[in-house]
Amino acid sequence: MARRRRGFPASTLLLLLVSCLLVFLGAAQQLQVKTSHAQFAFHLPLPDGVTGAESLAFDTANHGPYTGVSDGRVLRWGGAAAGWTTFAHHQDYRKIPMCTTPVAPPEETESMCGRPLGLAFHNETGDLYIADAYKGLMRVGPGGGEAEVLAAGADGVPFNFVNGIDVDQATGDVYFTDSSTTYPRRFNSEIMMNADATARLLKYDAATKQVAVLRAGLPYANGVAVSHGGEHVVVAHTVPCQAFRYWIKGAKAGEYELFADLPGYPDNVRRDAKGGYWVALNQEKVRLDAAAAVVPPAKHLVGVRLNGDGVEVEELTAAKGVTLSEVVEKGGKLWLGSVELDFIGLMQ
């Protein structure tokens, strides 16, 4: 007679089922992504005649925001009473009449007047570092005024499209991108259409005053953000819809590795208040169905929050037609910049 196989006791099976259920629920909670809606943001209009608050910055006294605009200036918001004032500009802005009295569209004059994109303060000195698409890496003191050009090229190759920027507050070193050595900002769509991969990640050494090329041959490197602990720099790549990280120190120093796949084309990256990062998205990733037809996105994503491991934990949506280039978390509020719009958004 065959021996009867004994199974698990009922109490053990129940315990196993409960354990599996708890693991499943825990994983589901981890995968749950919060959704916030930028369409309810307050609009802070820019001065008449200018657009494109591509990047936003706040000084050590939390004054601001400061932002670069289409006519070549960096503006400062002084509150409702003071409004917008000119904080900084390249020397050519005052020298060329068409910069101060526009007679042509900005895209035709920005190479002469300058086009400030990324902004970042060094808290210890109060200096504002400016990534100007055409003029190069610039710096202006706490009082503002005419910005000095710190560098216009590296390794014998002139800058062509200086874009994202951040400052390591511990060292004063500045990390920034040159989005293409082939195409200037005015023709940025050519970078995407031709799969240009000539971008560079660069470092301005505060001690030596020299610029080093950390990585070359990159596809459309855009925004940068030094990690919360200063171990690495997160770099947004617009066309591949990805973010990478370059390790500054530790056992992986010098390595460049994938940090996150993104649901859209990223612009700037900024540290959040929770150990992660806000990544602004200019547009959702294009998706095709089986018949190769374009599938419209169910919602219009303009930003995502990543945790410290590169996992998406929050998404930011907006009305169709709204594009963002930067999301900055300050004092429990989200400030929203756009290279295309004539206002700055504020989410309470």
What can you see in these coordinates?
It is built from 6 helices and 28 strands. The protein has 348 residues and is mainly beta. The chain has a single domain (36-347), classed as TolB, C-terminal domain (Neuraminidase). The strands form 7 sheets. A 5-stranded mixed sheet has the order 1-25-24-23-22, with no helix packed on it. A 5-stranded mixed sheet has the order 3-4-5-6-10. Strand 3 and strand 4 form a beta hairpin. The longest helix is centred in the first third of the chain and has 22 residues, at 10-31.
List low-confidence stretches.
1-5, 12-30
Structural class by helix and strand composition: mainly beta
CATH architecture: 6 Propeller
Mean of pLDDT: 90
Q: Largest beta sheet, briefly?
A: 5 strands, mixed
Q: How many separate helices? A: 6
What is the highest CATH level, the class?
Mainly Beta
Overall number of domains: 1
According to CATH, what is the topology? Neuraminidase
Helical content class? 10-25%
Strand order of the largest sheet: 1-25-24-23-22
What's the CATH H-level homologous superfamily?
TolB, C-terminal domain
Q: What coarse outline follows from CA principal-axis ratios?
A: globular
Number of strands: 28
First and last CA, distance: 76 Å
Approximate strand percentage:
35-45%
Tell me the radius of gyration.
23 Å
Pfam families: Str_synth
GO molecular function, one term: hydrolase activity
Protein name: Strictosidine synthase conserved region domain-containing protein
Keywords: Glycoprotein, Signal, Vacuole
